[in-house]
Amino acid sequence: MLTKEELPVCPVATTVALIGSKWKLLILRNLHMRPWRFNELKKDLEGISQKVLTDSLRSMESDGIVVRTVYAEVPPRVEYALSELGESMRPILNAMEVWGTTYQELVSRRNAAE
């Protein structure tokens, strides 16, 4: 988790610092649906490297947005899910989805009219 000194003054900049990367947003999009295992995320997020996925998950876990659960099974099973803090981002993700859908429809209508 960022220290108080590391936090940007602007609240929007704070949010962007925590979830602003392309991959973190797509990871959150998936975790918004349900808990995921590492390899499931890797397969679903086409183009993400193992290192970037690992680093992103660790960073989001450190920031308190994601919870990593290790199940005592053989072989061990690990799942990633939104924490309570991560769940509080649902309205942000929902708003981004609505805005993105509206924008896609606008572009489609423009292209059809041309």
Topology:
Layout: H1 11-19, H2 22-33, E1 36-37, H3 38-44, H4 50-62, E2 66-71, E3 77-82, H5 84-87, H6 90-113
Notes on the structure:
This protein is α+β, with helices and mostly antiparallel strands and 114 residues long. The chain is built from six helices and three strands; from the N terminus they run ααβααββαα. A three-stranded antiparallel beta sheet has the order 1-3-2. The longest helix is centred in the last third of the chain and has 24 residues. It starts with 10 loop residues before the first helix and ends with a helix.
In a few lines, what is going on in this structure?
With 114 residues, the protein is α+β, with helices and mostly antiparallel strands. The protein contains six helices and three strands, in the order ααβααββαα. Strands 1-3-2 form a three-stranded antiparallel beta sheet.
